[in-house]
Amino acid sequence: MLGICRGRRKFLAASLTVLFVPAVTWIYLFAGSFEDGKPVSLSPLESQPHSPRYTASSQRDRESLEVRMREVEEENRVLRKQLSLAQGRSPSHHRGNHSKTYSMEEGTGDSESLRAGIVAGNSSECGQQPAVEKCETIHVAIVCAGYNASRDVVTLVKSVLFHRRNPLHFHLIADAIAKQILATLFQTWMVPAVRIDFYDADELKSEVSWIPNKHYSGIYGLMKLVLTKTLPSNLERVIVLDTDITFATDIAELWAVFHKFKGQQVLGLVENQSDWYLGNLWKNHRPWPALGRGYNTGVILLLLDKLRKMKWEQMWRLTAERELMSMLSTSLADQDIFNAVIKQNPFLVYQLPCFWNVQLSDHTRSEQCYRDVSDLKVIHWNSPKKLRVKNKHVEFFRNLYLTFLEYDGNLLRRELFGCPSEADVNSENLQKQLSELDEDDLCYEFRRERFTVHRTHLYFLHYEYEPASDNTDVTLVAQLSMDRLQMLEAICKHWEGPISLALYLSDAEAQQFLRYAQGSEVLMSRHNVGYHIVYKEGQFYPVNLLRNVAMKHISTPYMFLSDIDFLPMYGLYEYLRYHVWTKGHAPTNFAKWRTATTPYRVEWEADFEPYVVVRKDCPEYDRRFVGFGWNKVAHIMELDAQEYEFTVLPNAYMIHMPHAPSFDITKFRSNKQYRICLKTLKEEFQQDMSRHYGFAALKYLTAENNS
Fold first, then answer.
1. Least confident of 120-124, 295-299, 378-382
2. Is residue 533's pLDDT more than 60?
3. 16-38 per-position pLDDT tens digit
């Protein structure tokens, strides 16, 4: 795709001609310095609205979305009613009032209408448990690897955050994929009084790789065995959770159970609720040794300091080596080894009531763990079938799970009353920047959006990419909202190369997108498409933030900066990869493009916004421009200021698909203040360009005044 001009050592980047329906857009080629690497561009010949926004492209899509949202709301309403009825049937609880501690019977929440049902009565153990210090930090360890498990962790964390009243410290044993996803998620989530530490799961593989394991969790399913060695030596206790857990109560209640441990008890576990360890599930079924029904390790309370003193590492290794001589492999990963150790050392276990791990696999005794919803505390989807598992009350459990799955995570950004959060430099800087804004400024909301931190979930679906050996590969970059979802299949059919997409969605819409993608043969057959969810917040469509997110997470040397409404011509991917073009400057000339057989140069002009192919290290889009207007124009101006050069490609084009006017362009046309603020932001951008690029930037002011 890119060629090198040896005389001036300039890189060439390409820009495409785009065919509208009925208008035409161009494909351009950028040339920049050899050291910095530069872009390629594609720009419309005529100005037409084409950025994906909120407005549905068809009434049918809008109605489908509205129906689904109403269904979710109705399911949640029924769930709240069921839980409220359960609350009325449960006995009343004494509520304490302490200055430094609180009763475990006491419920909390940020959404009173929902919490009134879920929390009420969920602290129904006989007698009052020992209190937990009001601001005591609760430590939680989770092993997480891969794309799917990362999604599961988010739902688990939501359920914990929804009920919690204490600071939380999550210890995530994660592979490189999960770390990248979850580190970005928590950094952008910015939940007060929550700390995250990561531990490299790949470095731990050698500790357990010698154990053959048939369980679907693979090698990562064995890593809970090495937590005493992995977690900080000064950490005394931790709650260990599987990723397929949903909390229905405050996790502090479970933390308080540590106070009940006596003597040499170092493991808190719930009895296994299936007949697996009884060995009677089928003929010649031979499970690992266990005490009675055995114990399930989806929820574990670990007294780390005592385990270390007992030489836990040596204990489980010797047991595993001995049993593997006859069993040859584990069937249930770490659970088999935990149970074999407990069989020999039953004094290690404090048996938790079974409502702390209601196991929803097929053929379990889980129904004996609760008589009412008020008894539920932790739900464990420990069947490979997950939400499709057979259970008499599975619909209720599924609705509870979906409540958190689709719950707006932004609502969980709440301070803990009376518990100061640790100082966070990013948060402090953000508050400082916001405090410097003038709230009386008529354009305040526009300016504030630039500093809004949007919760971001990278690689929402499985992603694979094999780097090209010739170093010419190019990724298509675009952004969209729910109303442009129908464009995805067409783009995947037209562009076989890697794609990076930023999707602006609510939590509920993200799940609808997931179901849509999983039901599409076209999308599921493509593993080189990175879907990055940027969660909705605020009143503007953050178009340039979305573009920056998609640009930042590409794996190729070059990227094709497009919009979701533009359909690449068939073969465009290969054309961009293997053609070399010359650099240059000249005005766009549609008549010339129609007859051109070789690339030709173009110059920057006012309001120029081509679609371009550029190197991955090109400047980001300016976040001050949100919604409609100047979001691409400003970016092209910055590229020109940095001496990128544009070349039109004669045999490359895209088709602009027709669609309804976007929500933002409607606001632009109908709202005078919107237009005034956009003009103000343009002027401030041009002033910033003059300060940054000096005399060279004067042409932009002159061109704007003459346009």
1. 120-124
2. yes
3. 554 444 444 444 444 443 334 44
Q: Which residues contact 444 (CB under 8 A, 6 or more apart)?
A: 437, 438
In DSSP notation, 426-438 reads: HHHHHHHHHHTS-
Question: In percent, how much of the chain has pLDDT > 70?
Answer: 75
Enter the DSSP assignment of 330: B
The answer to whether 104 and 356 have CB atoms below 8 angstroms apart is no
pTM of the model: 0.74
Joined tokens for residue 130: 């020992």
Q: Are strands 168-174 and 138-144 parallel, antiparallel or unpaired?
A: parallel
User: Cis link prior to 91 (omega < 30° from 0)?
Assistant: no
Cβ proximity of 430 and 451 under 8 Å:
yes
Buried b (16+ CB within 10 A) or exposed e, 77-110: eebbeebbebbeebeebeeeeeeeebbbbbbbbe
**Which residue shows structure tokens 């609502």?**
411
Tokens standing for 123?
């602290």
Beta strand segments in 289-376, E: 295-303, 349-352, 358-359
Q: Identify residue 99 by its one-letter amino acid code.
A: S
Rounded Cα–Cα distance for residues 25 and 106 (Å): 62
At 286, the amino acid letter reads R
Residue 151 CA to residue 518 CA, distance in Å, equals 14
- Element (H or E) spanning 533, and its range? strand 529-535
pLDDT digits (tens, 9 = 90+) for 645-701: 887 777 776 666 655 666 677 777 777 888 888 788 877 787 787 888 877 777 777
pLDDT recorded at residue 583: 30
Number of continuous H segments (helices) and E segments (strands) in the chain: 23, 26
Contact 500, 534 (CB under 8 A): no
How many degrees, rounded to 5, is the angle at CA 666 between CA 516 and CA 439? 100
The better pLDDT of the pair 299, 426 is held by 299
Specify the higher pLDDT residue, 469 or 179: 179
Question: What percent of the chain lies above the pLDDT cut of 90?
Answer: 43
Residues 6+ apart with CB under 8 A from 47: 607
* CA dihedral sign, ordered 349, 353, 355, 358: positive
CB of 130 closer than 8 Å to CB of 259: yes
Q: Evaluate if residue 49 carries a pLDDT over 80.
A: no
Tokens of 496: 């076989």
Tell the burial category of 462 from Cβ atoms under 10 Å away from its Cβ (0-12, 13-18, 19+): middle
**Token duo for residue 204:** 């731990």
* H or E element that contains 4: strand 4-5
Nearest to 168 by CA among 140, 130, 197, 198: 140
Nearest to 40 by CA among 13, 5, 11, 1: 13
Least Cα distance to 199 among 209, 191, 207 occurs for 207
- DSSP at 498: -
